[in-house]
Amino acid sequence: MADRNSGRYESCRSVDSMELQDRIAVVTGGASGIGRESARLFAAEGAKLVVVADVDGDKAAQVAAEIGSPARGVALDVADETA
Fold first, then answer.
1. Taking the CA of residue 32 as centre, how many other CA atoms within 13 Å lie in the half-sphere pointing to its CB?
2. How far apart are CA 29 and CA 55, in angstroms?
3. pLDDT tens-place string over residues 40-71
4. Cα(74)–Cα(2) distance, rounded to whole angstroms?
5. What's the maximum distance between 2 C-alpha atoms anywhere in the chain?
6. DSSP E strands: which ranges in the chain?
7. What pLDDT does 4 receive?
8. pLDDT for position 59
């Protein structure tokens, strides 16, 4: 369960399948809520690149800037098949 005081997700840290070291993570809906926290967690877990994708490109870029390297923010509407 999430420890609201530390901002860490202990239940996720114990799952072996969450090994993200040197992997690329693409997080849709990454500008807010669960997507934002997932992007932060994936970066903390050692992902080589975290792509924060959201329809609001400015917010996606802001979240990526808050995370720092290795995050990049992009504007993307996953419901638009031509995107």
1. 5
2. 8
3. 999 999 999 999 999 999 999 999 999 999 99
4. 27
5. 42
6. 2-3, 8-9, 24-28, 49-54, 71-75
7. 47
8. 98
